[in-house]
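Dear colleague,

Thank you for sharing your sequence with our group. We've completed the structure prediction you requested, and as agreed, I am returning the results in plain text so they can be pasted directly into your records. Please verify that the sequence below matches your submission; if there's any discrepancy, let me know and we will rerun it promptly.
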Amino acid sequence: MERTLAIIKPDAVEKQFAGPIIQRIEAAGFRIRAMRRVHLSKAEAEGFYAVHRERPFFASLTAFMSSGPAVVMVLEADGAIRKWRDLMGATDPSKAPAGSIRADFGSNIERNATHGSDAPETAAFETGYFFAGVDLV
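Please find the predicted structure tokens below.
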């Protein structure tokens, strides 16, 4: 079994899409091992996305991610990282497959409803960022 971090971003939480997204996660066979609602400070968002600090979208991304509540989760399944990324769809909702979370709930490349880890090392860092010291059951 593999674990990955999933975030329901502030745009989706504001539009009350968290419930339908969680239903899709569970219907796809994931086990939610940890979940909490957070409202990141700008500094916390900058720490989480530090890998993108030199990218031109860093300031707008961190401002957006600290603009309202989000839901962070640790998901578990066989091949969880790839499986979650497939369920989310492409980063740009206009390029995401029909029926994917981002196609159905995202607005644009930044306000795309969800985040997911892209590799085992990233998943370990991201999970620890939000759930350090938490016994994931």
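Summary note from our side: The domain at 2-131 is CATH 3.30.70.141 (Alpha-Beta Plaits).

Kind regards,
the structure core
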